[in-house]
Design a protein that fits this description.
The chain is of the alpha/beta class. Helices cover 35% and strands 16% of the residues.
Length: 255
Amino acid sequence: MVVLGAGVAEARPLRVMALDQCADQYVLALRSDAELALSPRADDPDAWLRQAAAGRRRVRPTLEAAIAFQPDVVVRYWGGEPRLLARLEATGVRVVTIKDATDFNGVRDRMLVVAQGLGVPGRGEALVSRMDATLRDAAPDPGAPEPSALYLTAGGFTAGKGTLVDAILRAAGFANAAARPFFAPVSVERIALFPPTRFVLGFFDQARSDWRGPGRHPVVQRAAKGRVAARLPGAALTCPAWFAADAAAMLKAGT
């Protein structure tokens, strides 16, 4: 087992296993110098650091794969079934879980916790500083009006208060038009009868994602024509991580 800590020499490169796509992003950003075993989705179109994943080992999040790789640290968001996690912890493998976050304070905490777990707290602090700089650039001018916007996915869902999407909207100076908290479906009929002033579209760049979903309905497309404030890529929205700030910057820029 490799011992983490300042001034401690490692007998071999640190081995880090990521159990899902969100964990992939964290380990690629914080421990690209380690020997990584990424999840099968590390280079999917909705992965923020998919280019950095090129050429890296990819393994399924199974007990058999973990036994073969012998990780020192395992990072997960939702991945990993109970048998795998219990076995890893029983054998002394450090398991670092990325908890969900509904605001940027939560994202900051998650980044610092994972960086600490990977033995690189300074890199976590640097990544937080980078995120905060992006948020400052995305922030609206003091006293500027808050235009209302409805977030809508290709699958026909929106996100109200209590979600990271709501924090992204507010960080860019928008008021959330979602009527209910958390994630909820939006009917095509309601959009036709009461079209929002502005739309913020998410995951529409994923051509194979919900290609027959309510968000792609012709009625919705007509309602959104000329009212789209921004089209946010799925890669910026899949994980409670620093690049949620980049989504806010895109929203402010209207991209």
